[in-house]
Amino acid sequence: IVMTQSPATLSVSPGERATLSCRASQSVSSNLAWYQQKPGQAPRLLIYGASTRATGIPARFSGSGSGTEFTLTISSLQSEDFAVYYCQQYNNWPPVTFGGGTKVEIK
Amino acid sequence: QVQLVESGGGVVQPGRSLRLSCTASGFIFSNYGMHWVRQAPGKGLEWVAVISYDGSNKYYADSVKGRFTISKDNSMNTLYLQMNSLRAEDTDVYYCAKDPRSARDGYNFYRPYYFDYWGQGTLVTVSS
């Protein structure tokens, strides 16, 4: 299953809303996770089951979608949110597959 | 708290071998399946291999099948990745990652899942 993220780069001002998209080449139901990765760090789980926030993740992060179209929304960007975000499908394997990432940068 | 610490990376010539380790703490290692995921510098994530909590089941990405072997020593709380016949395209940061499902929670190896904790990674550079 090929996962396609858009846009590749998103320029957003602090306090603004960011909307990231992830599309699957075939249905993955709700078996979709989102990760955040900062430079030099490991990915951190944000969302699983398409819309469930992982432990300790702030409420400004929300996920939606099912089937082939998914969205990660950051309601009001904080300075610590500027990072690369990846989606991952876990509906079929092997392999589980990741999207190419969306870099959220400061506008 | 959960900690995963990878080691064993370095510079290796094409065709040679390397073994990565991932030492786990903060959870009952023997109850959880584990994965290796890699990332080329500045690039995206690629899943490499998975092993079930008891080591009885394994899957590999096609790109490494027949060259890499995943294993885990539950007595040592350590996950391994034996990498043979290394190629330039294996140059990546290698992360170990934990499956969130415990063997006590109806773990099903044949159903894929996400990763709830990741190590900090170890860099493998394959170059002559």
Structure description:
The complex is a heterodimer of chains A (107) and B (128). Chain A contains no helices and 11 strands. With 107 residues, chain A is mostly beta strands. In chain A, strands 2, 4, 5, 6, 9, 10 and 11 form a 7-stranded mixed beta sheet that branches. A 4-stranded antiparallel beta sheet of chain A has the order 1-3-8-7, with no helix packed on it. With 128 residues, chain B is mainly β. Helices cover 0% and strands 50% of the residues of chain B. Chain B is built from no helices and 11 strands. In chain B, a hairpin with a 4-residue loop joins strand 7 and strand 8. At the A-B interface, strand 5 and strand 10 of A face strand 5 and strand 10 of B.
List keywords for this structure.
heterodimer, A: 107 residues, mainly beta, 7-stranded mixed sheet, 4-stranded antiparallel sheet, 11 strands, 0% helix, globular, B: 128 residues, 50% strand
Largest sheet: number of strands, sense, barrel closure of chain B: 7 strands, mixed
Helicity of chain A, as a percent range: under 10%
Number of helices of chain B: 0
Q: How many strands in all of chain A?
A: 11
Q: Return the string of H and E elements of chain B.
A: EEEEEEEEEEE
Helix count of chain A? Answer: 0
Count of individual beta strands of chain B: 11
Rg of chain A to the nearest angstrom? 13 Å
Kindly state the mean pLDDT of chain B as a whole number?
A: 96
User: What can be said about the biggest beta sheet of chain A?
Assistant: 7 strands, mixed
User: Secondary-structure element sequence of chain A?
Assistant: EEEEEEEEEEE
Tell me, what's the shape of chain A? globular
Structural shape of chain B: globular
Whole-number radius of gyration of chain B? 14 Å
Instruction: Label the structural class of chain B.
Output: mainly beta
Span between termini of chain A: 33 Å
